[in-house]
Amino acid sequence: MTGALSLPSLPAALRVWRRNLRVFSKIWRGALLPLFFDPLFYLVAMGFGLGTYIAHINGVPYREFIAPGLCASAVMWAASFEMAWNAFFKMEETRLYDSILATPIEVEDLVTGELLWAGTRAVIYGTTFLIVISAFGLVESGWAAAMPPFLLLGGLCFATIGLAYTSLIPKMDYFTFYFTLFITPMFLFGGIFFPYDKLPEWAQVVAWFTPLYHLVLVCRELATGPDAAAVAGNAAWLAVLTALLFSVPVVALRRRLVA
Amino acid sequence: MRPLGFAGDVAVRARGLAKRYDGIVALDGVDFDVRTGQCFGFLGPNGAGKTTTMKMIYGLAAVQDGTLEVLGRDISRERRAVKARLGVVPQEDNLDRELTVRENLLVQAGYFGIGSEEAERRVAELLEFSLLAGRSDAMVRQLSGGMRRRLLIARALVNEPELVVLDEPTTGLDPQARQTLWHTLDRLRDQGVTLLLTTHYMEEAARLCDRLVILDLGRIVAEGSPDELIARYGQPHLEAVFLHLTGHELDR
Ligand SMILES: Nc1ncnc2c1ncn2[C@@H]1O[C@H](COP(=O)(O)OP(=O)(O)OP(=O)(O)O)[C@@H](O)[C@H]1O
Ligand SMILES: [Mg+2]
Fold first, then answer.
1. d(CA B168, CA B92)
2. How many A from CA of B215 to the centre of ligand 1?
3. Are β-strands B163-167 and B86-89 bridged in parallel, bridged antiparallel, or unpaired?
């Protein structure tokens, strides 16, 4: 297929990004609230409820243990919603992707613009939640201020996985599988609510293969005073997966929309 | 008139164009030349391959067999450069439902990399021209079907294209809106813009097209100016020619 390996044009991708920013600037109030209450409720239920019984994990108060992980999960949910239903809608229902592809924007630019946007949206959610937990006094280290770029990286990773899935499924119904078999288990077992260091080795190995696990570790390190090598290692894992998967939505959408 | 074959004279050149969609033959070896500045029509019954041809020209369907040159370039190799000079009115409305009328045009200008000042100027002009200035802050879903089509046409002109592809642009328009569109197309043609048009209205094709092809089952069954075709097949009007050439369903 011609141009299967062509690199995206950043200016073209940013045009798609700006379109999304324009739409978001109109709806952000209504859009921000629900996804923002979600981690807040978990923080209250688990941190303040369960946290009364489990005082500390590895010497860290339970609330402080889970709070940074919830920043990571806010990123995961935001990027996944954006690249699941929203992207499917633009691809199959409103045919917005068709109209964009009839301009000088090519599939690889469209994919890049959409991923950058989903990453941006994820950063907005994750950072908002970071500000909230800081206000609750749940962040120990000033290094937490360095979190947003890592939230962007995590957002891009989840966005890429999400768009790869969306570009391959025939019907919207398939998102049930994505969320109940992939996103929700990651949320529960990704290391937000309990640490892996005392669990059997096989459990650690399984967790290592999930992206949320690495983003949670990055966020927790930064919030509690980081081990630079751990941050770099986990961030590199996310970057490598994102880079490896990028071509999946490009090739799939090209087949689907301009075949 | 310049001799045919001069590179700048041919806006679209198709040779042996063919396309199958898992088993279904959509186009079965089609040759045509559209000369610069012409209004060129594609007629044919449902499923004849008109939209497929159009989509290949504007880069949303890959050329499977044969060659297709658009504005002097091979569309399979230089899609981005070609698309920058095209305007597209698709058969199905794909307006941006999350934006207002004005924003649809502004964002479209953005996709072409047109600066914001210039974009504002063109958008104001197009809103006037499409009689949508009064509805510029309406969301797309609040427009009537005909208004949406007018917006779709205005959107196709934002980048001041050299070639405009119009896939059934007048379906669903009231007589006034249709007349207005005809005048617009006349004006564009006077400015030297090449027009490709599909339509199911024969009087519209006769009124607008300098040349046309009649497609059936993915093949061209006739080509010529409306008058030539009427004379060649000894029919009273274009509709009769069309039915004469594509009436196989009726024979069965
Ligand atoms: N994406 C697709 N997948 C499978 N088959 C397709 C696809 N697009 C078109 N076809 C088939 O190709 C043939 C030509 O379709 P096309 O849309 O080009 O017809 P048309 O001349 O534009 O018809 P109409 O007047 O109804 O718009 C039809 O048989 C159609 O079913
Ligand atoms: Mg059609």
1. 9
2. 12
3. parallel
For residue A95, pLDDT beyond 70: yes
Number of domains in chain A: 1
Q: What is the ipTM of this complex?
A: 0.92
Evaluate if residue B4 carries a pLDDT over 50.
no
Atom 24 (ligand 1) nearest CA: B46
Instruction: Say how many C-beta atoms besides its own lie within 10 A of residue B134's C-beta.
Output: 9
Residue at A24 is within a domain: no
- B252 has a pLDDT exceeding 60: no
Closest to B177 measured CA to CA, from B157, B152, B195: B152
Give residue B248's pLDDT.
Answer: 64
Minimal C-alpha gap between B109 and chain A (Å): 10
Please measure the distance between the N-terminal and C-terminal CA atoms of chain B and give it in whole angstroms.
45
User: The tokens of A173 are what?
Assistant: 């119904």
What pTM did the predictor assign? 0.93
How do residues B11-69 score in pLDDT, each as one tens digit? 999 999 999 998 899 999 999 999 999 999 999 999 999 999 999 999 999 999 999 99
Q: What pLDDT sits at residue A21?
A: 97
Torsion of CA B138, B142, B147, B150, to 10 degrees: 60
Residues 51-70 of B with CB under 8 A from A: 58-62
Size of interface A-B (CB pairs under 8 A): 72
Nearest CA to ligand 1 atom 6: B21
The pLDDT of residue A146 is above 70: yes
Is A142 among the domain residues?
yes
Q: Is residue A5 part of a domain?
A: no
Structural element, H or E, at residue B234: none
Q: What residue numbers bound the domain in which A85 lies?
A: 30-257
The answer to the question of residue A1 being in a domain is: no
Q: Which atom of ligand 1 is nearest to the CA of B49?
A: 18
Domains of chain B: 1-85+165-174+184-252 (3.40.50.300), 96-160 (no CATH)
